[in-house]
Amino acid sequence: MLPNDAGTSKPKATPVFREESQQTDNTPVFRDSTSEVHSQKEQRTLTEVILSIEKFTFSYASSKTTVLHNIVMDVKRGEVVAIIGPSGCGKSTLLKAINRIHEVSYPVHVEGKIMLWGENVYDPKVDVSVLRRRVGMVFQKPNPFPKSIYDNVAYGLKLIGGYTKAQMDEIVERSLQQAALWDEVKDRLQTNALGLSGGQQQRLCIARALATSPEILLMDEPCSALDPISTQRIEDLIDQLKGEYTFIIVTHNMQQAARVSDRTAFMMQGRLIEYNPTEKVFTKPEQQLTEDYILGRFG
Ligand SMILES: Nc1ncnc2c1ncn2[C@@H]1O[C@H](COP(=O)(O)OP(=O)(O)O)[C@@H](O)[C@H]1O
Ligand SMILES: [Mg+2]
């Protein structure tokens, strides 16, 4: 099931940067362009498993309560997976567990495996700085560094080292283009990133994550602090970048999950209740609990 030959060709890198970085709408509606979006999806080959979560159980050492129970889930290269579920069900914990970002702040206890390209990310031999470069993260609240726009995007590249100025310029431009921010900032790359609007800051954080060429981008409610136009921009860029990148996005907005994702995972109380193609989850869910949640019978 897992491609064992893949990761071997990936360059090993020196440390990479770490980021620290609701609209509730219970009526799931597909965008008018659904048929167009779905035909695009059909053209993509989503067969290769990039990430496989195998009987994964998680607790924070401080509380001893089990937060994630026996999660089994795979993610295919190039797809967009949405994670939905009530507050406190463990969505953020699951996301953070994938690139072990919680270990920056808290000791944790895990059982089971999270396999990335055939390697368990919890294997003691894993270099977490490389892991976090391969699995980038964008947080709910935009968290640019108090540096210039250019330096924010180039931050990870400088940590990795070995890039010429010309190479960095090229990657900074490409990442800002991919994050749909280039046109708005190309004439002020040396100005402080904190002067950007919230929506621009979030796209800058996406550009910063993209600059080090991650294979997977984890997004924890990336639009919940943004206005509808900025939200639309982020959804559009996910739509454009899927295929090239793999996205796992936690969202409270079920319309957003329906619009952007190929598959949707519904979690409750630390358990994965249902994981199916998004259209199925929102039109004909397998589990009664999923239907009750989607129809707003509980929150
Ligand atoms: N650092 C922590 N230490 C102890 N418990 C935590 C910590 N962070 C989250 N939790 C608990 O883990 C559970 C899942 O939280 P979380 O993953 O943030 O849920 P969600 O993102 O779905 O709202 C909650 O019960 C929460 O209280
Ligand atoms: Mg959360």
Describe the structure.
The protein has 299 residues and is of the alpha/beta class. It has a single domain (28-294), classed as Rossmann fold (3-Layer(aba) Sandwich). The protein is built from 11 helices and 10 strands. A 6-stranded mixed sheet has the order 6-7-8-3-9-10, sandwiched between helices. Strands 2-1-4-5 form a 4-stranded antiparallel sheet, with helices on one face. Helix 4 (149-160) crosses helix 5 (165-178) and helix 4 runs parallel beside helix 7 (198-211). Mean pLDDT is 86; it is low at 1-42.
Query: In angstroms, what separates the terminal alpha carbons?
Result: 35 Å
User: How are helices and strands ordered from N to C?
Assistant: HEEEHEEHEHHHHEHEHEEHH
The top level CATH class name: Alpha Beta
How much β-strand is present in the residues? 15-25%
**Ligand catalogue:** adenosine-5'-diphosphate, magnesium ion
Low-confidence stretches: 1-42
State the helical fraction.
25-40%
Enzyme class: hydrolase
Keywords: ATP-binding, Hydrolase, Nucleotide-binding, Phosphate transport, Transport
Domain ABC transporter: 51-294
GO biological process, one term: phosphate ion transmembrane transport
